[in-house]
UniProtKB/TrEMBL annotation, chain A:
Source species: Paenibacillus cellulosilyticus
Region called Disordered, residue ranges: 24-56
InterPro entries with a match to the protein in the record: Bact_solute-bd_prot1
Keywords: Signal
Stretches with biased composition (Low complexity): 32-43
Name of the protein in its database record: Putative aldouronate transport system substrate-binding protein
TrEMBL record, chain B:
Domain ABC transmembrane type-1: 93-308
Organism classification: Bacteria, Bacillati, Bacillota, Bacilli, Bacillales
Gene3D superfamilies associated with the record: MetI-like (1.10.3720.10)
Coiled-coil intervals, chain numbering: none
Membrane found in the keyword field: yes
Stated name of the protein: Putative aldouronate transport system permease protein
TrEMBL record, chain C:
The organism's taxonomic lineage, starting at the top: Bacteria, Bacillati, Bacillota, Bacilli, Bacillales
Organism: Paenibacillus cellulosilyticus
Location in the cell: Cell membrane
Protein name: Putative aldouronate transport system permease protein
The entry's keywords: Cell membrane, Membrane, Transmembrane, Transmembrane helix, Transport
Domain ABC transmembrane type-1: residue ranges: 74-274
Amino acid sequence: MKNKVLPVVMTTFLAAGLIAGCSDKDSGSGSGTSTNASTTEAGGKTDTAGGEEAALTSIPLPITTEPITIDYWRANDAKLTASLQNFGEMAAYKKKEELTGIKVNWTHPPLGQQGDQFNLLVSTNDMPDVIYYNWASAVGGPEKMLADGRIIRLNEYIDKYAPNLKKLIDSDPDIKKQISLDDGTIYMFPYIRSDARKLNGTSGLVLRKDWLDKLNLSVPKTIDDWYNVLKAFREKDPNGNGKKDELPLTGKDGAGTLNRLNDFAPAFGVLGGFQFKDGAIVYGPLQPEYKQFIETMTKWYAEELVDPEIITNDGKAFDYKITSNLVGAYSGGVFSGMGKYYNLMKEANPSFSLAGAAWPIGPAGKSYATFNLGGKVLTYGEAITSSADKDKIKYIVQWMDFNYSPQGHDLFNFGIEGESYTKEGDTIKFTDQIMNNPKLTYDQALAAYALSIMDGPMDQDSRYLDALLAYPEQKEANTIWMGADDSLTLPGLRFTEDESRLNASVMTPISTYVSEMVTKFITGKTPITEYDKFTKTIQSMGIDQITKIYEDSYKRYQSR
Amino acid sequence: MELIRQERAADSAAVPRGRITFLRRELVRNKYLYLMLVPVLAYYLIFHYGPMYGLMMAFQKSYSPVKGIFAGTWVGLDNFTTFFNSYYFWRLLRNTLVLSFYSIVLGFPAPIILALLLHEVRSKAFKRTVQTVSYLPHFISVVVIVGMLSTFSALDGGLFNVIRSLFGYEPMMFFTEQNMFRPMYILSNIWQGAGWSSIIFLAALANIDSQLYEAAKIDGAGRWKQLLHVTLPGIMPTMIVMLILRLGAVMNADVQKILLMQTASTYEVSDVISTFVYRSGVLEANYTYSTAIGLLNGVVNFTLLVVANAISRKANSSSLW
Amino acid sequence: MKQSFGERLFDGMNYLFLSLVIVVSAYPMLYIFNSSVSDPNELLHSRSFMFWPEGFQLDAYKQVFHNPKIYSGYMNTLFYVVFGTAFNLLMTALAAYALSRSDLYGRRFMMKLITFTMFFGGGMIPTFLLVQNLGLVNNRLALILPAAISTFYFIIMKTNFESIPGEMLESAKLDGANDFIILFRIVLPVSKAILAVMTLYYAVDHWNDYMGPLLYLRHQDLYPIQIILRDILLSNSMEAMGPGADTGFAIGENIKYATIIISTIPIMLVYPFIQKYFVQGALIGAVKQ
């Protein structure tokens, strides 16, 4: 969380840039783009441009007969580049151009380099009209981008020209809350998941179902069940090679820490970071329950139930261990943690099967998720820059709103009907063009048609997920994970610039200290008797200041 | 020697007599040299000093693309004090310096030794083979190198652990063993870089006047004596200049490599200034803070270089200026 | 001349040690090459040391070369390497020769001015804005002009020039040669070894340059091979394949290794050609010319 709101006062003097001084074009809107609602340049401009136009109720097709081209910048996606060069070649965008009559000029930075490229882009004055980005990772966050006059406020435009997005906002109070910044500004056409729980609940704990069956065990529910299952995996040679080489629990991408084990912390009602506890915001590792969690993990580690390389496993090592029948349980997703291994193992080991498991049951008999399942508005979205021609903005807004219209919704979620998908009643089925493509994997094939498999400005439809989950175990896992209770987790909060600075300077040493000490406790290098000293040190490092920041930010969130 | 004295004379002569006359005469005398320096200085002024105003960000709160650097909010030394007061400041400084110290002690001589050994090889074909092969690892990216180290370190069937077991040792986790971090980091750097860096010394060796060797042989010097009295003095200026430059990089560490190699179990020795700053996430989010850290590193590095250069100059041997 | 026992022992040990260096240095490349041609499935399942390939396929190479951008990438890189290095050598030689002359007034000041830039710079954004204001964005010159001199290499070259006997320059001067003639007719010809090193170092830097094109180029037709290969690599990584990756497509790991081989082989071949300049006594031979 490194986002800042620049105080409104500071926005008054924007045009004074010496280095990256404003061009004439945006000095007008730059100084006027106040984050305060009432009289914005946006509203004013529309009046002069078109008088008192009535708000649109649907997007006219074509949107305009004038020849209009939108300059659009977004990161490329490896799934798409497997077969296409840019997003304009995607079937959905081609169709959109045909329908709306608006052309798009796409610019993509080289794969994986969007961060630097974005920072350069917003430092100059010839920005494209539209930028699609993860705004939470923009320097200073969207608040600063608005305050600096890089992107424009969209509330008034949405009221007038974006009937479909407006309908989504008005019909769902969660979306309304999450799409706005703390001061009520809407700055983007976001990546939305209105069916949030289902689409967010796609990862969790996974076990080898065939191992459970072989040992006559059922999917573990409580933390004690987990212990018994892992113990049996270790002792009873479920892979049947006569060697005690099973790694009951492992994981990957742990960034050199044991943070992966935090998946078991909810069994004690705690998480590894900031969380709700009895209605208050607290820091997990300071809670006495976290000590119990550490003790349990220490025991597991000492009894070799945890792969010691869980700290260092990269994707390659992880794939090797799973496909070599060494691993009993791990945390993963429906696709990359389940479907992938089913595909890799279907020939080598036909009996290979997996089961998703709920987080072990915690206080009040509930299974608590380690992450927020209710996030409906993601931080990704398309914003209009101050370089966009003022007269063009209303068309751009309509063009962007098209993705949320019924027609655009199907187009960007499923592609072209009859070509990439068929509809039977309400059910979606992808065609062989997607599911059995001779040259591409199904996600690469779908990426050539629609956005749903990647990310983008749309309301992602959970039916795309149903259509892609080929194995019943994947669907079951999804159902289990989405049913978890996420009341321990915090919603997506926004921090002011000063809060972010404090957070970076105070929280980095604390996080370093915590991951270092947790690793030492669990691997037995430091005795658990030192735990009180550990919590005292965290306090002395200034954790209370950070808790205060979280409380303040949450208050602002609630009053949105 | 002669030239240095001349220069000093020239320098000191400049002040008392008419400076202008002196400069004019000097400009005429060395007009072609100054002409050569015109594009060089233009390059440095435009491309290096031109953007240097960016350093001011170190004293500001945040950078705003539109307002530009001159209009930021000034916070004085806040960015520095935040870092100095950080809980881990001393550990980070210590680790940065210790890692650099070992890198210099072990890593600096490696390419020189390799070059000297190659110098003693008489078979041309063998010499060229070693040269060509030893510089190959330079072309492999850090990500791939660390990925290979990780594969070799696997508990179950990793090359390093297989070798350990040949000698009857238990397998170990190299990446979580605190004592293994520095050796792994430094040795893999040598492995990757020694062949590449030795090229400079091979060129310096080629420049040694072969008559000197002939003369030494006539004096009855064996190969060891030739090494001490001809070879080493011949490459001494290059060695000293390289060492001075290396000392001017003590605060630099290969962030990407350390980030890939470090684990929470080894933070005690592996966490250096740059990795810590990187982990705080401020590098992407906060130019002012990262500029401040960069400036701090630059000051320490530059100071060390100036000191090392002065010492070397005093000792009457090579120096940068 | 007859060798003593000690000398023969040393030679033996030396050959042995350097052979070990060959093995240790060649191993990673061998590992990478063998991995690139191994069967993807075997690659996933084995913990082989890759002394030889596990199974065999060339699909990874086929897939990479199937991409038409590879060829324009190679041509662009060739352009940057050839013209970039030539310009580097010219600028560096001018700087190194002028500043190696200790009778030059202001030499120390200029050296300090230049060395200072090794430690302090304006950072990415001011540099980018400068390049943009000079109109160099999307221009091939953006990869050549801003990197005209590497201060590190310049210092090495200057140190080498300083070791050239002063008498050589003096006598040329007495013959009436000006500094340009001295540099190009006397200094450079006797400095073939260091010129060869500089050529290699600069060429490799241009070859490997990734950040420059990333920051300054927007048109794909200008991209060098490194950017193109990385795009291919990322498009085919196991992570990018995500859920759909099954054995038929799991060639991402092979492609990763294949791109290393493809991007390394051409530049690797440069070194053996310049080694002939590292011959003992090149200096003296040239003096006598």
